[in-house]
Amino acid sequence: MKQRGTDGGVEQQPTIYDVARAAGVSPSTVSRAFSQPGRVSFKTAEKVRLAAQEVGYGNDLQTGSDIRSDQTRHTGVIGLVATDISNPFFVEIFRGAEHAAAAQDMMVTLINTNESVPRAREAIARILPHVDGLLLASSRMDSSEIQKIARGLPTVMLSRPVSGIPSVMVDNYDGAVKAVVHLVDQGCTSLTYIAGPYNSWSDSTRWRGIVDAANALGSLFTDNAGATSLKVSRTVTLQPARMRNLARPTLRQLPVEEPSFIGGRRAFEVWAKNPTDAVICFNDLVAMGFMQQARMNKVRIPQDVAVVGFDNTEISVLSSPTLTTVAGPLRAVGRVGTANLIALIKGMKAPLMAKPRELPTRLIVRESTLKATS
Q: β-strand 357-359 against 167-170: which pairing, if any?
């Protein structure tokens, strides 16, 4: 609800302070919930979202299709802006986007930003006149910048939520929980998370899932040696009677210099100074680099360290041992995101405060974590 000014005529737009009062949280928590949802709990993020909807925060945000003239020339081209096209993660999303666009007689052009926010800004500014809409995949740009872009051009977020903009992603939290439960079941008692970029929404969400899963395992272990079950995430309910091992694993987070094969190799050298039973890597590329460096240093996988990746890209089956990884339907992310974008381009009104669409994950267990049978 908009607030009427003291002169009785000018309406003031709601602010994050209004949202904070309605949600019963601090303004800084509201800011984090909008810019980095993975840094707050799901319950808090949902409370903030509903409060924002209640006070009308963000309702003035128009999608590009709302303010573009009906006479605007359509190009039949969609821009997909990715942070690193050397990562197979983005290739899979692109394939899905291309398929959905072709079904509507449109094309997708791929723009690589090399993990650089300034380069992303420049690329988007240059491409805006030549595309009908944008797909922003794992963008590192500030939410306010992205919202400004969306005011001028139909925009859909992939792998990151931004308030007021349609978004499609995989359930990173649930996937991280599954990885931790599997590793503990294999007998791992100490875990390292080799993290991604500090401003990655997926990274912070995965870390939160790892921490919550470890705490849940610890509470079951403490309470009657795990006599009861406990629901941890959307699809994971811990059932101690079915687990071979039960413990609260110790955790640490190890930032990676870059979310790449080389970054994984360098991360191994840091990990080796204080090794743990298992590592969960930000993506498959990092995991593959870690495993190669481990082999070069005579560290056995999974006997000495179990390794889990994320994304289930094609490279995960090319290593020896093959890589256990959290799989998300990446092509579906591209297809669904593109279908939503085309609907916006054609004039459909986006529900500005709609919840992000999260697609389910599954854990693909391969040789790199099977300690119990190795």
A: parallel
